[in-house]
Amino acid sequence: MDVTFPYTIRVKLPSDLEVIPPIRKFISEILVVSGFSAKFAFRSEIIVDAICNNAISYGSAGEAESEIEVSCEVYSDRFEVVVKDGGGSAPNIERLKEAIGARGAKSPIEEIESTGMGLEIVRLLSETMELSVDENNLTSIHVVRKREDVNPPA
Amino acid sequence: METQIQLTCEEISGKSDARIVRFVGDLDATNVDLITEQIFNYFSDGLVKIVADFKQLRYVNSTGLGVLLHFNKTAREKGGCFKIVNLNEDVYEIIEIIGAASLLDIYDEMEDAVAALS
User: Could you say which of B28, B66, B103 has the minimum Cβ distance to residue A49?
Assistant: First the structure.
C-alpha cells in the first residue's frame, strides 16, 4: 500500500473501557498496513491501550456522557498519539502527575497498581511521554514512539 | 461487551489438585473480572496448581499483567502455583520490560511445566 506520511487519525469516543479494544486494534492494524513492523504495531497497541485506559479511569470524573479524544499522527519515522480526557478531579490529576514522573520511588512492580503499571510500560516503550493540564482540568497525554526498523528518509 | 476471551480447562493425569487452563483471545481491562472469577473458582475448588497455556493468547495489557501477578501470588499463598507456558514473544517482551519475568513462573514447553508441578 502506498502511504503518504504524515497522516492523522482522530476520533472522539465515549469514555467507556469497552471502546479501547476496537481502537487499539484499529491503530495497530493501520500501522501494519502502513509498513511498520508487527512488533512496532503491538507495542503501539499497548501504549494506546494504557493511555486510553488511564483517561477513562481517571479523567472522566464519573460523568456519564464524557468523552475521550484519541489523535494519532503517523510519520514515516515515528508514531505520535495524544489522548485527551473529559476532565479529571484534582486528586486524580495529582496521581497522574506522580505516575508520569517515572518510578521515582522504584516500587517493586508487583506493588504498582494497574494504572501506574500501564503508564510505566508506556514510559519504557516510548521516547517521550508528556502530561498537560489546562485551566479546566482537561488533561492530555502525548506519547512519541520512534520507528526502530528502518532509517528515516533524508 | 467484553473483549473476546475463552478459558478451557483440562485435567492432568495423576494430579488431582492441578489443571491445564488454556487462554484464547485477548486479556485486558474489559475481561479481567471474568477471568479472575474463573481462576478463583478453581482455587476455591482446591485446584491450586494451574498451568496456564497462553499459546492462543494474543495480547495482555497492564491490567491483565496485574491479574497474572495476582494469580501467581494467590496460588503460592494457597500452597499451589500458577505456571505460564507458550507465551508469545510480544507479550513476553512486555513482561520482561516491566521487570515481571522473574516474578512469574514461565516455561517454554508444556511438558516441562507439568513436570515441575510438585
Answer: B28
User: Best mutation site among B57, B63, B71 for testing chain A: the one with the most A CBs within 10 Å?
Assistant: B63
Residue B45's Cβ-count burial label (10 Å; 0-12, 13-18, 19+) is: exposed
B97 in A contact zone (CB under 8 Å): yes
What part of B 19-48 touches A (C-beta under 8 Å)?
26, 28-30
Which candidate from B2, B59, B63 shows the least CB-CB separation from A114?
B63
Which CATH entry fits the domain spanning B5-115: 3.60.20.10, 3.30.750.24, 3.40.190.10, 3.70.10.10? Answer: 3.30.750.24
**Could B94 and A109 be called an inter-chain contact, meaning their C-beta atoms sit closer than 8 Å?**
no
Terminal-residue alpha carbon distance, chain B: 39
Q: What is the largest CA-CA distance in chain A?
A: 47
Interface pTM, i.e. ipTM: 0.94
pTM given for the model: 0.92
Write the pLDDT tens digit of every residue in B12-42. Answer: 999 999 999 999 999 999 999 999 999 999 9
pLDDT in tens, A9-31: 999 999 999 999 999 999 999 99
- What is the distance between the alpha carbons of residues A70 and A82, in angstroms, rounded to a whole number? 6
